[in-house]
Amino acid sequence: MSHFDVFNGDADGICALHQLRLDSPMDATLVTGVKRDIALLQRVAAQVRADDTVTVLDVSLDSNRAALVELLERGVRVEYFDHHYAGEIPTGPGLHALIDPAPDVCTGILVDRHLGGRQRIWAIVAAFGDNLPDAALALVRMLPPGLAPSAGRLQGLRDLGDTLAYNAYGDTEADLIVHPATLYRTLSRYADPFAFMRDEPVYEKIDRSRRADLALAQAALPHARYPGATVYVLPDAAWSRRVRGVFGNELASRSPDLAHAILTPDDRGGYVVSLRAPLARPAGADALCRRFATGGGRRAAAGINHLPQGALPEFLLELERAWP
Ligand SMILES: [Mn+2]
């Protein structure tokens, strides 16, 4: 009998699993990848046998439905924690699902609920990493008085969440600073997040790369400027693919009245597009991206997985029209 831990490679996925395994250690095969790679369960389905068990964390059930149903039909027991869109949850004795798509919840918080807060410090890191600072602070207030962190240590937990989150950005595993399974294995030796930050060079390594990537992006010149939107086309490089989203966030907070599009070349001669609506009017990004075949996302932040080279003029036109 074997166990499989299947988890999103971002801060939330890693910290959710870390809480579970601090609480009940288990030898497991790790299955993870870049943040965008959410179809993880199908990767493992062929290896799993009927008497095996699987834990799935922080990837949409809807995106893993076929593999999940197949495992359940084979009698595999699956434990599933997630906060993304799930659709209808399969029924059956083999599935234990804790799923809550509320906007102030992340998977680390769901695991915190499941464990009655026994590893709460890591749920706080998860919430910071998933960009839910209010939820993180709510968890901090639930800590016993003696364990409440100082302002400096609180900032440390926030930095740790941001740093773990940054490591999962990229289009393929080759773009990542450290493979998320390696990062998890290193982190898993530490119950204390401050000891991890102090003693593990990998923390400093990711942090340094994040700063260097951002500095390179900040030195880039816009490809186009419109009254209501700015467009960047970053070079075909791993740092571009890592920094795309974080750079978009930074531009948005610097110029809250402008929409921002960040494009990076993809391996099919087109572009991956990350689009942010103006912070001051955070809507319309999803509608614009959905006009293209591989577009989707949320109202404030959306993307196009593959914008063909020939469709770039049309994209720029739509952008100019959406935010005149
Ligand atoms: Mn998450």
Task: Explain how this protein is built.
The chain has helices spanning 11-23, 41-45, 65-73, 107-114, 120-129, 133-141, 151-166, 180-187, 193-199, 201-218, 238-254, 285-290, 312-322; strands spanning 3-7, 29-31, 53-57, 77-82, 95-99, 224-225, 229-233, 259-265, 271-276, 295-297, 301-307. With 324 residues, the chain is of the alpha/beta class. It has two domains: 3-209, inorganic pyrophosphatase (n-terminal core), CATH 3.90.1640; 221-322, Diaminopimelate Epimerase, Chain A, domain 1. Strands 6-7-8-9-11-10 form a six-stranded mixed β-sheet, with helices on both faces. Strands 2-1-3-4-5 form a five-stranded parallel β-sheet, sandwiched between helices.
Terminal CA distance reads 60 Å
How does CATH name the architecture of the largest domain?
A: Alpha-Beta Complex
Q: What strand line-up does the widest sheet have?
A: 6-7-8-9-11-10
Order of helices and strands: EHEHEHEEHHHHHHHEEHEEHEEH
* Number of strand segments: 11
Shape: globular
In terms of DSSP E residues, the strand content is 15-25%
CATH-assigned fold name of the largest domain: inorganic pyrophosphatase (n-terminal core)
CATH class of the largest domain: Alpha Beta
Radius of gyration: 20 Å
Helix content: 40-55%
Main beta sheet strand tally, sense and closure: 6 strands, mixed
Low-confidence segments = none
Name the average pLDDT. Answer: 95
How many domains comprise the coordinates?
Answer: 2
Structural class: alpha/beta
- How many alpha or pi helices? 13
Hetero compounds: manganese (II) ion
